[in-house]
Design a protein that fits this description.
The complex is a heterodimer of chains A (104) and B (142).
Chain A: E1 2-3, E2 14-28, H1 31-43, E3 45-46, H2 48-71, E4 76-88, E5 91-103
Parallel strand pairs in A: 1-4
Antiparallel strand pairs in A: 2-5, 4-5
Chain B: H1 2-35, E1 53-66, H2 69-81, H3 86-106, E2 112-122, E3 128-140
Antiparallel strand pairs in B: 1-3, 2-3
The chains are: A alpha+beta (104), B alpha+beta (142).
Chain lengths: 104, 142
């Protein structure tokens, strides 16, 4: 599966469009790590557990989107966009969407 | 009384530790930025040169950075008075540059990164922010 966030795939030709595909996941951090992040909020710096959480969840969302595209027999997704929303304290929704296409 | 002492200690720790952490982070950012300067990242969607392309793929990098307690208090005061909140400007600057650097590290070997987009969202408490940078890495035919 080839993913890009532009309207085409450089070096390849789009032969068929399948429409929008998307994937989303809602994740929350466990309380223990939230406490760790609370301490980090005092001294500043990177919240590594949060970075890993967001990265992992985004991968999951992409995987779900790819599964949808595979069902449509697409072999690429173009114009991929990410969107994140904070739905509750400590929980975030990660949403990814794009256009499934077949390229040659 | 105890609360007041705790607050002063927190602000003090935040100020000294926060300044150190920020200084170190900026040093590391500058060093890595210089190293990855060879890889252009553009917000344009088209290739700048007509060259045969081997492959293209989506790359992204993210970073969650938190500011220190001192700056949270400072920003709170500024919120009351209004005006430019410079305490948060460095936080966002660091998070963005870090995210773009991570994207570049993932795209090593690519010739150009097209359509770079940077997105920000708030995670956890006030004073911590997540930045996501994503784009399309293009590899030319060698």
């Amino acid at each position: 599966m080839i993913l890009t966030n532009i309207e085409s795939i450089p070096g390849k030709k789009v032969v068929e469009h399948f429409g929008l595909v998307c994937g989303s996941t809602v994740r929350a951090k466990n309380a223990l790590k939230d406490i760790g992040a609370g301490f980090k909020n005092i001294v500043g710096g990177e919240l590594k557990s949060y970075t890993a959480l967001m990265d992992e969840s985004r991968r999951e969302a992409i995987e779900r989107m790819e599964q949808q595209a595979q069902q449509l027999k697409a072999n690429a997704i173009i114009n991929v966009r990410f969107s994140t929303s904070n739905i509750a304290p400590g929980a975030a929704e990660l949403y990814v969407y794009g256009t499934a296409v077949r390229v040659e | 009384m105890f609360d007041l002492i705790l607050l002063v200690v927190l602000i003090g720790v935040g100020y000294f530790a926060g300044t150190q952490v920020e200084k170190k982070h900026y040093e590391s950012i500058k060093e890595r930025e210089a190293k990855l300067l060879y890889l252009p990242t553009v917000s344009s969607k088209n290739l700048l040169e007509e060259k045969p392309v081997d492959s293209a793929l989506l790359v992204y990098g993210n970073a969650v950075i938190s500011t220190d307690y001192f700056k949270v208090i400072l920003a709170g005061l500024r919120n009351f008075l209004g005006g430019e909140v410079s305490a948060y400007e460095t936080l966002l600057d660091r998070a963005r540059r870090e995210a773009i650097l991570r994207l570049k590290e993932k795209a090593q070997g690519a010739d150009i990164v097209l359509n770079l987009r940077v997105e920000t969202c708030q995670v956890g408490k006030a004073g911590s922010t997540e930045v996501l940078a994503y784009g399309t890495a293009v590899y030319y035919k060698k």
